[in-house]
Fold these 3 entries.
Entry 1:
Amino acid sequence: MKSILVLAALIAISGTGTAYAQDSGGVDVDGTWYLGEGLKKGDYFEYTLCEIDLNGCSPVELKIWIKGDTVNVSETLWDAQILVTDGENTIKGSWGLGKTVPTPILFDDDLSDYAVAFKSSIAWLSAYATSNEKDRIHGPQEFKSSSWGALGPVGGGLESYLIPSRVESIMLPDRTTDSVVVGWYNDNDNEIWLVDDFPFPVKALAYAGINSDTPPVMFEFDLTQYKEGITKDPFVDIAETIQQSDLLNCSKEFLDYTSDRVSTNTYSMTIQYNFSPGFPIEGCEIDWKINFYNKYNDMEILDQVNYDIWVVDENDSILYSYAESINKEKLYSDFGQVDHRLPVEYSGLVRYAIFVHGLGPEDNVNGEKSGYSIIEIQVERNPLLEKTNTDTTETISPTIPAWIKNNAGWWADGTIDDDAFIQGIGFLIKEGTISVESTSQSDTDAKEIPAWIKNNAGWWADGTIDDDAFIQGIEFLVKEGIIPA
């Protein structure tokens, strides 16, 4: 995935733009802007995006294609087809965007978190600038205006205002033009780049409005591609990642929470935890809502908390770290209130540990308040899962032995060679699991196994494709004489 901190070649801020800022805000540029200005059927956008409540601002790639119109009861919406690349996952679906304010009104369940992140970042200016010309406060905003509105707590104080601050030259995929930078300015420069007659902002960097030496990024995004007049679905040939939760029919609703307050083992603070479901199921997810409180005041939530969520054994040795699973050393919250959904990878009586490294900025943690709390949760074993001796999870097949799937995974990652894998496939043919006549008498030593077969084996081993898709690939090898029938 492209780094959110690296601008694509298609978007580049010159850094030497001419400034026309007035003392009270506003720039000497005619015209107005609002979210969705000029949006039309066939528009296509690509963004790199991070948002504070989406994976802790880990970047994702968001692609949007305006297919046309869709009707919701009596309301006509934009039919926006969506493709998200989030780490190793690819999610496809659709949003219904409002016509007056093009933010998601309808969205597929799998895209709900990304719809919320879109509203809070790329579409954030909809709180100040919409196409409703009858709304004097939230209608189209003039670039010459001294202010587009007060920020309040978002800007870190009641005296912060959203103002057009300067003009900078910016390069879009199809042209170079001037952009107007709007923002609010306190201890940090929070800025959003706009182009007149362009539907969405093209770039932004904003920080959370809190008192901190190192405030976290609230949102950051860059437009990396834009096209007009796209008539064919650009995502039709892109395969969506099959989520394990879908294969296991896991519930995606988290309603009834189990709650309690416990002290850390060092009595450094009080931790209020809430988790759902009450009886998690192996292979699905558990939703954690956690608050960190001052041990002397159960109404005071602590800030600048450095923490992690672990699974530990009976000796408190770490079996799983949520931070490590998302490639972080630890987790951080400025506000002392967090919400995480974790995969449930163990069954039986599972010991979760909410571990606090300490308080303070991420790069200067004070360990005086460190400690942990253990929460024991009974996790139901999932009959669709079988634990292997390597602690990997696999779907049980009624026809193919589990050790064959292990072999496929080991072959895909290079642990075993082609011959060992072929011996396992020979077993399937001998036992009649695969029944096909060879149509070629080619020398098996003369042909290599195609790379896509090895890819299939890896995907089958981790549950991305089903037995039938894997067997079709093996039948191809037999028919081609690469594996003897």
Entry 2:
Amino acid sequence: MGAAQSEARPAASPPRDSRRAVVIGGGASGMAAAYAAAVRGLRVTLLEGNEKLGKKVYITGKGRCNLTNDCSVEDMLAHVVTNPKFLYGALYRFTKDDVRALLAAYRCPTVTERGNRVFPASSHSSDVIRAWEAALKDAGAEIRLNTRVTGIGTLDGRVVSVTAGKETFPCDAAVVATGGLSYPATGSAGDGYRFAEALGHTVKPCVPSLVPLKTRETFVRDLAGLTLKNIAVTFKAGEKALYSAFGDLLFTHTGVSGPVVLSASAYLAGKLADGLRPDLLIDLKPALDAEKLDERVLRDFDANRNRKLRNAVQGLLPSALVPEVLRQAGLDPELPVNSLPREGRKALVNALKGLKLTVAGTCGFTEAVITKGGIPVTEVNASTMESRIVKGLYFAGEILDTDALTGGFNLQIAWSTGYLAGSSV
């Protein structure tokens, strides 16, 4: 259990001191930052441009909110794709157990499901938001909704104020927790990047990650909604394998999605943004090598020797996939099974072991779970989340150049970096 356990539910608002902190953004990292700072007695104002807190949190996990992962910190770091070492201190400072304890203290118990994914027991993301709102209220933080920040003021290299339209909030520290560019409908407009650049920071190119992929092939629209379970995928550029994984894949109207595709996008996002268009090979029978699969095909064909090929392969794959698999194998679906030569059977096996699509790009930020890129971690103190360029300026959450795979890891990064920033101001 991290240091936050004893702070899970303050009995009353702590005594206020003269220090003022402004947290910009009321998402996961912003709420955690405001709570951590307020618990310490700072005068905290949380500014959120939307009409409610946690607008992106509401839609995570299809509205159920996969809020963390019930694994060790070491395992969590192994699921971080970009800059895992930077997150070491934050993930130990405010752990998944601390998150669950805080939520439980505010009547939001949690449960662990497949893959160690943690959800609110109610399966309602709104309960997670309500718990954080109650925690912020108890801690004494002021929440200002419908308040979009327009700038951060500095004097002699130190933060002195935050401006929202015509209103100015004097402060000793500001936490930028404005998120990235994913799901722009939730208010992710890239404001934090502009604030950072105006104050001397650089911003690494931002690209969509954990995002569905488009394919050049149009047959996918006829398969939209079809899920292939326990398949293997390999992304290749020429003969070079770029990424391989095992799991579930979902066909969409424009391409492919599902866990194996989203994970692939986390590793290939930069290359895809630069114009790489790799082949995607789907092994529909990864548990069988080519020889064993050929034996399976022979058995099926022996039992269906008088049927047409399109009917004889029904036991090998979903019926919706039959036309495309036979097309890629170069086989006539009307051919009687007993007329299929050995070379034709081999072509079928090859198609089953490597159904081919060509990636045409990503579905963009509108469908991306997270943003890859942002504030370079070399410009941020990993022990405090404070800027190395401007005193009193802190960063937390998706705005940082760090990201992870699906499974609750990215939200835990948000809680942890936000809490560490709020604890450090």
Entry 3:
Amino acid sequence: MDIATIAGIIAGSVVVGFAILTGGDVGTFVNVPSMLIVIGGGFAATVIRFPLKNVFQALALGGKVAFTHKQTDPKEMIDQIAELADKVRREGPLSLDNLEVDDPFLKKGSQFVADGYDPAFIQESLELERDQNLSRLDEAKRIYKAIGDAAPAFGMIGTIVGLVQMLSNMEDPSTIGPAMAVALLTTLYGALIANLVALPIADKLGTKAKIVDVSQTLTIDGVMQLSAGKNPNLIREMLVAYLPEKARMEAVAAEAAAAT
């Protein structure tokens, strides 16, 4: 569970809700035609730009990443790969067969090694899967970005519709209030959907793509070293390059201390 996403949405909703409560009746800010214009129009514009199936897949992926985002620690991944390498050197590649590995991508790679597949096939297969994962995240990001762009635009369209309705019936004062509500609330709804939901999730997907790229590229390099039967210490030294500078320095210092 990603607490940051939940906390951010709750905090944003509380701030807006508090402003509404201190200013008057909550019912004033509920307008079905305005919701239909923003949500329906934004969805329609998005499915015009992307295949319908991809839109639903992206919505599900965005929700999963936003609310169940799991941070992958490169240092833990390096340690696990080094442990696997030590096991291979002591017991052979077959020792990896059906071994319990937490990360699904690393598990798949280690199983390839255990099954004795050609190194070129292993690398090609894992790189293809990584690229497909990145492609799905990128498309989901673009779809959420499209929703974030469309929602305020349709909010403006709703504002124009409401103003036209209001100006065309100025002789009937009873129509001015509802028309003005449509005019203003569509802008509010569009801004909320874009800035509190769609665009933050789009950024979250972009961040997730960077994490997946580093993590799975690290895993591919580690699995290829496993396949070659390299020394665990050599593998660790090579993969340390994937760590942030501070963590890299700490890892080097820890290795130096262990050597002494």
